[in-house]
Design brief:
Elements (H helix, E strand, L loop, with lengths): L4 H4 L5 H14 L5 E2 L11 H12 L12 H13 L9 E4 L2 H12 L5 E6 L3 H9 L5 E4 L11 H7 L4 E7 L11 H14 L2 E5 L24 E6 L12 E4 L2 H12 L7 H12 L2 H24 L12 E5 L4 H12 L1 E2 L1 E2 L8 E5 L4 H13 L4
Parallel strand pairs: 1-10, 3-4, 3-5, 5-6, 6-7
Antiparallel strand pairs: 2-8, 7-8, 9-12, 11-12
The chain binds 4'-deoxy-4'-aminopyridoxal-5'-phosphate (PMP) and glutamic acid (GLU).
Amino acid sequence: MRFADRVTRVEPSATLAVSNLASELEADGVDVVDLSVGEPDFDTPENVKQAGKDALDAGETKYAPSNGIPRLREEVAAKLRSDGLDYEAGNVVVTPGAKQALFESFQALVDEGDGVTLLDPAWVSYEAMAKMAGADPSRVDLAPHDFQLEPALDDLADAVTDDTAVLVVNSPSNPTGAVYSRAAMEGVRDLAVEHDVTVISDEIYQHINYGPEHVSLASLDGMFERTVTINGFSKAYSMTGWRLGYLAAPENVVSQVGKVQSHSVSSAATFVQHAGVEAMTNTDDAVDEMVEAFEERRDFLLELFADHGIDMPTPEGAFYAMIPVEEDDEQWCQNALKEAHVATVPGSAFGAPGYARLSYAASKERLEEGVERLADAGFL
Ligand code: PMP
Ligand code: GLU
């Protein structure tokens, strides 16, 4: 059988691949410390689950309007406005997961041969989505700058040209946990305006931030009309399996993206959107508790590694840390899984060879167990 180039030229998601492998080992009875996939270990808040059940009981089981139920689009727009972003409900498309919002944005914005720029290390799916839309992305490496964007602005200026259609910015970042400064974001704005570039700003870890200011690109002068803001429910509200996310953008973008959604997934699940309204309006305490726990675990993990002589830049958001490992990080991760039964994701998958990504959305006991196993098996 012949397969399409745009699909054969991408690899399967490395994050999900490692996590599937870990699940297979677990099914064989192996106790794996799974620090691979980025998934909060907390349950979805009880009131959100109840809202989902109530919606089912109320018969919210039929097709929803393609771009989302009006109440959720309004709540999302209100939340974005309270963050200083000028969106109305008509600027919002509710999607089955932020991943779908990103996929639809790439489909709507990128043509065969267009320039797409990523900031390395970059989350695995951006490159695949850019390639499936026909682009071969260029990459700017933040690793030599402790994963920060501000000191890399000159490199970014070299990479972004009039041929660049899309630049992807993800702060707080998966996989580094870096939160980009206002000056860095203003640098992005200046380049985007100069070269007429659309910026996809993936802010899914916005709430998982341990101190620095969160700067939404669309709030900067000149950026509203050239930004697609991506966010979702998976991380902040521990709702990974509900598959709920959204994008917010100028109405001309919404019209194009809406076509992709209406001809593919139709909409996010109707009762799930009702649970999303509850998550948006009534979970402040639950989110604060989870974020506090993540911060404690980050400090704990960094101390554990420091005890083994491994230092790394302090992640200021999300729940990932990049630890320096051997040059062949793919081999390192495979061996760590096979021999120490600790699952991590190779940095190469994010454009950062020589690192492994650990998700610390796991209990302190499991983090300690994981680091001990790595040390005992000679990996540290
Ligand atoms: N963006 C980033 C940076 C992510 O880490 C994830 C995690 N899956 C997503 C988008 C997509 O999240 P979801 O589809 O679960 O909303
Ligand atoms: N975003 C998470 C991660 O990086 C979940 C898996 C995925 O969707 O890639 O691990």
